[in-house]
Amino acid sequence: MNWLIGPEFGQLFRTFEHTAFRLEARDSYYSPNETAALTQFVAGESVDMGWFQNWLSMIRTATAEGRRFTRVRVVSVPLTDYSRFGVFCSQYTTAAGEDIRYLARHDASEIPLDDYWLFDSRKLVKMHFDEHEHFLGGEIVEDPAEIVRYNYVRDALLHKAVRRDDFAAE
C-alpha cells in the first residue's frame, strides 16, 4: 500500500483551503520528536517545547489566513500519562489557534473511532500505526461514501466533545 509519510504528508497541512480536522482515538502515540518532552512532563520537570515550535508556527500562519485546525481527542479516563501530556501541550496549540476538544471514551462508544485527518471535508487520510504506536503513514481514501461517513463522525464527535480548557478544568 502506498501511504503518505514525511514531506508528502506534511504538504497536506500547507495546502488545505479551509479546514483540517483530526480525530485522535488512541491513548498513546510514539513520536521521537516528543519523547524527551514527554519524559520531562511525566517526571514533573520543566518541559522544553522547542520540538513543537514548527507545528505551532504552522497553526498560527494558517489561522491568520482564516484556515481552521480542529481536533477531537477521545481519551480513556483516568487519563494515561500520554493523554495528560496531550492536555498540557494543547494549551500551546489552542493559544496558536487550534480548536481542540476532548471526549471520554465511554461517551463515544457508538461512534467508529479510526484515527484520521479530514481536509476541507473532502480529502480523507486514515492514519495507520504499528503495535508500538509508531506512525506508518496516511492512507488517502477516495471513496465518496466513506468520506461522507467520516464527515458524519467528525460532526458527531464535535457535538459531544468539550473544549480543551473546559476539559482541563475538570
UniProtKB/TrEMBL annotation:
It comes from the Bacteria. Residues 8-168 form the DUF6879 domain. This is DUF6879 family protein.
